[in-house]
Amino acid sequence: MTQWREENISVNGINIHYTQAGDPQKPALVLLHGAADSGLCWTHIAHALENDYAIIMPDARGHGHSSKIATGIAQEDQAADVAGLIQALHLPRPYLLGHSMGAMTALVVAARYPELVRAILLEDPPLVDRVESKTDDKLRSAQMSTWLTDLKQMTRDEMLAHVQAQSPQWDEEEYVPWVNSKIDVDPSIFQQRGPAQRSWRELAAEVRCPVLLITGDTSLGAIVAPQIAQDALQYWPEGQLVHVAGAGHNIRRDNYPAFMQAVKAFLQHVQSHSDQQ
Known about the structure:
- InterPro entries: AB_hydrolase_1, AB_hydrolase_fold, Carboxylesterase_BioH.
- This is Hydrolase.
- By secondary structure, the chain is an alpha/beta fold.
- The protein has a single domain (5-276), classed as Rossmann fold (3-Layer(aba) Sandwich).
- Helices cover 42% and strands 17% of the residues.
- It contains ten helices and eight strands.
- Strands 1-2-4-3-5-6-7-8 form an eight-stranded mixed β-sheet, sandwiched between helices.
- Helix 3 (101-112) links the parallel strand 5 and strand 6.
- Helix 2 (75-88) packs across helix 3 (101-112).
- It is globular.
- It starts with a strand and ends with a helix.
C-alpha cells in the first residue's frame, strides 16, 4: 500500500485540492465526487483499487479544500477544471469514475475533451429529460440549500449520528469523509447556475470512448430510470449498463460488493482491449 498524498494545484485560475493514492506507474483513475461530497468521500473505493491504479481524488470547486465560489457551479466549468487537472498532472488518458454531479462532469469531459479520456464510469448521473422553468430550478436549488444548511447547524457528532442512522448499510469507512465534506462545502454550490446547461442527450451523442453506466433503484432514490438507461446505451457504441438492485442514489455505498464487481470488470475489460490494439 502506497502513501497517500494531499496536494494543491492551480487550474483555470482557482486552487484545486486533490489526494493522490496508488502506484503512479499504473493506469490513472480520477474519481469525481457528487455535490456536497469531497474527494476523500472515495476513500473506501480508493483503498480497494490503489494497488492497480494511480488514483487522483480532486475536490471540485466549492468543495473540500478547493477554492470557494461566489455562485453556483456550471457543468462546463467543472469539466474544464478536470481537463486542466489531467493536463497539469500529465495523466496519460485516465479513466474517469464519477458519482452524480461528478458523473455528469465525466460525461462532459468525455464529450468536450475526448483526447484526454480513456473511458468513463458513471454512477447514477442526473440523466433526466425535462423542460424546466426558472421557478422549478430555483425551488430545487432552495431545497438542496435548506438540506445543507440544516446539516451545517449540527455538531460534528450530531451529523455523524444522523448519517449512521439514515444509512446503516454503509461501510464504516464512509461516514467520517461524508461528515467532513458537509462541514467543508461552500453553501453557494446550490445557488442559481445562470444559463441553461446542455441536455444529457446532446452530450451523450458526442461521447466515443467506452462507457459504464451504473444504475440503482428509482424507488430507493436513484435518478436514472430504466428507459433512460436504455436510451443512453443507444448513443454509446462501447457502452455497458449494470443495474445494482437494492441501491439508491449512493450505489457504491448502498451495495459496495456489486458496485465494485461492476467497476473492476469494466476496467479490466477496457484495459485488456487496449492491450490488444
